[in-house]
Amino acid sequence: MSEYSAQASSEDKINVTVTGDNVRKRLGIIATCVVGGSLVALYAVAGPFVAPALRKICLPYVPATSVQVENVLKVLQQRSGSLVDIGSGDGRIVIAAAKRGFRAVGFELNPWLVWYSRYKAWKEGVHHSTSFYISDLWKVSFAQYSNVVIFGVPQMMEQLEDKLGKELQSSARVVACRFPFPSWVPDDMTGEGIDTVWVYDAKTFQSKVQINQTEK
C-alpha cells in the first residue's frame, strides 16, 4: 500500500469516528430535549391537579364515585331551584344535577378542571343550564343558592359551617359528602362508607345557632 493510500485510509477512519461521535452527541441532545419537554408538559398538566393538595386548607381533586353522585341526587330528589357544588372538580355533580332539572353551578380553583367541566357539559348537552367558575370558595357568597353540595376535607369543615350558617337562607339544604360537619346534626343521611352523604337543612342548624347565642 502506498503512503498516500495509507494516509487516506487513516483520514477516512478519523472521519467515520468523528461522524459517529457527532451522531451520538446529536441523539443525546435530542433525547435530553424530549425528556425535558415531556417533564415540562407533565408538570403543566398535572401541576394544577396536585397543587391544591399542598394548601393548608384545600379541596384536593378526588372524583366522586357514581354511587356518591346517585346518593346526592337521591337526597335532593324532592328539591328544585339552584344548586352549587363547592369544589366541583370535573363537574360530574353539576352535570348530573342539571340533567335532573337544577340550574347548577360549580366553583373550582383548578382552571384545568373548570375548562374540562365546561367541555363535558357541552358534550352532555347541558351547557345552557350549567356554569363553572374559577374561584376560591372563601371569596364567594352562597346566599343565592337553595341547594349546596360540598366534598370537603376535615380541616375546612368548621370554617365552612360558620360561612354557610351566616350566608344561606333558611330554606336551603346542604349536602356533605365523605366528611360530615363537626357541629351540625344531620337531618338525614344515606349511603355507606365513602359513599355516605349527610343532609343538613338550614332552618335546623340556623335555629340551633340562635338558641346557643340566646343562652350565652
Beta-strand portion reads 15-25%
Mean pLDDT: 81
Spans of at least 5 consecutive residues with low confidence: 38-57
DSSP summary, beta strand count = 7
SSE pattern:
HHEHEHEEHEEEH
Strand order of the largest sheet: 3-2-1-4-5-7-6
Our Rg estimate from Cα atoms comes to 29 Å
SS class: alpha/beta
Distance between the termini: 112 Å
Largest sheet, described in full? 7 strands, mixed
Could you estimate the helical fraction of the residues in percent?
Answer: 40-55%
Number of helices: 6
Overall, the morphology is globular
Question: What does this 3D model show about the protein?
Answer:
The protein is built from 6 helices and 7 strands, in the order ααβαβαββαβββα. By secondary structure, the chain is α/β, with parallel strands linked by helices.
Short key terms for the protein model shown above:
216 residues, 50% helix, 7-stranded mixed beta sheet, alpha/beta, globular
Q: Layout of helices and strands, plus pairs?
A:
Layout: H1 3-50, H2 66-75, E1 82-86, H3 92-99, E2 103-108, H4 111-124, E3 130-134, E4 147-151, H5 154-167, E5 173-177, E6 188-190, E7 197-201, H6 202-215
Parallel strand pairs: 1-2, 1-4, 2-3, 4-5
Antiparallel strand pairs: 5-7, 6-7
